[in-house]
Design brief:
Largest sheet: 6 strands, antiparallel, barrel
Radius of gyration: 22 Å
CATH superfamily of the largest domain: Trypsin-like serine proteases
Number of strands: 21
Number of helices: 6
Order of helices and strands: HEHEEEEEEEEEEEEHEEHEHEEHEEE
Strand content: 35-45%
Structural class: alpha+beta
Shape: globular
Number of domains: 3
CATH topology of the largest domain: Thrombin, subunit H
Strand order of the largest sheet: 1-2-3-6-5-4
C-alpha cells in the first residue's frame, strides 16, 4: 500500500505541470452587442451590465473555459472541442507556473470531442506521455486532472476504470445540441465541469483518455475519450495540416429485438436507413452512401462481413477507417440481400 501511495504521489507530481487552464474571452462591447441581440430575439429589453470582476485590464470578458494538457513541449495542447466551441472568441492558456499565453486553434475533430491548440512559450514546456487506450483494463487505477468548476486549479481525483466502449448522449448545457459519444472509457474518478479537457492517466502517468463528460444525475459515473482517438487526430494534423475523418452519409436506426417487433422488420440487427424528422434526409445527396446506391428503408446488415449491432454501430466502424477506404456492405432491400461497395470520403 505504501509503495502504491508513493507511486501515485510521484505520478501526480509528474503530470500536474503539464495540465493547463483554458479561458475564452471576448471584447466587452462584443459581449454586450451579442446579449442585446439575444434579448431582441426573445422580445426582452433590460439594462445590460457586466460585472467588473469579469472584465480584465484589456477590456476582455471571460465567457467560458476548461482544462487541457501539453502533449509537446513546443506548446501543443489537447482539450475537448466543446471547451473551445464558442464563436468569435480569443483563447488564452495559463500554464501550471501561472504564465498566460494567447492560443491558436489548430484543429477540431468534426466527430469526436477533441480540439488541438498551440501556444508560443518562451521556453520548452513539460509534456505528458501518451499511453495506449487499447490496453486499458477494467479495475486499473485512473487519475483525473483539471480545474474543477473552473475555480479550483490543480484538482486531482482518483478511481478505477469501471467500463469500456461506453456510448452516451451528452450536451454541454441546456441550450447546446445533443452529441452522441461512443467508445468512451468510464471511470469513477470525479470529473467536474471545468475538468473537461484534462488528462485521465494510469498509475504510471501515461495519458489514456481526455476527460469529457459526467452523468449529472448519478454519482461516480464519468467518461473520457480514448487517447488513441486523439493520437489519430494528431497524426492527421502533422500529415495533412488538418484532421481528416471519413464520411458515409446516412441517418440510421440500429435494430434490436424490440424494434424488430415494433417496426415489423425481417431482422433484429443491422442499421435501418431512415430519417429522424420529416425535414431530414435518410441518405445525404452526393455522399459516399448515395453514390453507392444506398436507399432509404435499406437495412445494412454487415460491414466488411461483420454484423452491425447495438454494440458495433456504423459510427463504431467508421472510427477504424480512414478517408479513401473501400467498404463492402451487405444490404437487405425488399427482402433480398445485395452487396454494395462504398468508398469513404472526407467529412467537410
Amino acid at each position: 500500500m505504501w509503495n502504491e501511495h508513493n507511486t501515485i504521489t510521484r505520478t501526480i507530481k509528474k503530470v500536474m505541470p503539464s495540465v493547463v487552464s483554458i479561458t475564452l474571452k471576448k471584447p466587452k462591447d462584443l459581449v454586450i452587442e451579442q446579449l442585446k441581440e439575444e434579448q431582441k430575439a426573445i422580445h426582452e429589453k433590460s439594462h445590460i451590465e457586466i460585472p467588473e470582476d469579469k472584465i480584465d485590464a484589456q477590456g476582455l470578458v471571460d465567457v467560458g473555459g476548461g482544462s487541457g494538457f501539453i502533449i509537446d513541449g513546443s506548446g501543443i495542447i489537447l482539450t475537448n472541442r466543446h471547451v473551445i466551441e464558442e464563436k468569435e472568441v480569443l483563447y488564452f492558456v495559463t500554464t501550471h507556473d501561472n504564465h498566460t499565453y494567447e492560443a491558436e486553434l489548430l484543429a477540431k475533430d468534426p466527430v469526436d470531442d477533441i480540439a488541438i491548440l498551440r501556444i508560443q512559450p518562451t521556453r520548452k514546456l513539460r509534456a505528458v506521455k501518451l499511453g495506449d487506450s487499447a490496453k486499458v483494463e477494467l479495475g486499473q487505477t485512473a487519475i483525473a486532472f483539471g480545474n474543477a468548476l473552473g475555480l479550483f486549479k490543480d484538482t486531482v481525483s482518483m478511481g478505477i476504470i469501471s467500463g469500456l466502449s461506453r456510448a452516451v448522449s451528452a450536451r454541454e448545457n441546456e441550450n447546446s445540441a445533443v452529441q452522441e459519444m461512443r467508445g468512451l472509457i468510464q471511470t469513477d474518478a470525479a470529473i467536474n465541469p471545468g475538468n473537461s479537457g484534462g488528462p485521465l492517466v494510469n498509475i504510471y502517468g501515461r495519458v489514456v483518455g481526455i476527460n469529457a463528460a459526467v452523468v449529472a444525475s448519478a454519482e461516480s459515473i464519468s467518461f473520457a475519450i480514448p487517447i488513441n482517438t486523439a493520437k489519430r487526430d494528431i497524426k492527421d494534423l502533422k500529415k495533412y495540416g488538418k484532421i481528416r475523418r471519413p464520411l458515409f452519409g446516412v441517418r440510421y436506426l440500429v435494430l434490436n429485438q424490440t424494434l424488430k417487433e415494433k417496426l415489423k422488420t425481417p431482422v433484429d440487427y443491422g442499421a435501418l436507413i431512415t430519417k429522424e424528422h420529416t425535414i431530414d434526409v435518410a441518405v445525404a445527396s452526393g455522399s459516399p452512401a448515395d453514390k453507392a446506391g444506398i436507399k432509404e428503408n435499406d437495412i445494412l446488415l454487415r460491414w466488411n462481413g461483420i454484423p452491425i449491432t447495438e454494440t458495433r454501430s456504423i459510427q463504431d466502424f467508421l472510427e477504424s477507417h480512414g478517408v479513401g477506404d473501400e467498404v463492402t456492405l451487405a444490404v437487405l432491400r425488399n427482402g433480398i440481400e445485395i452487396e454494395r461497395r462504398v468508398t469513404l470520403e472526407e467529412r467537410k
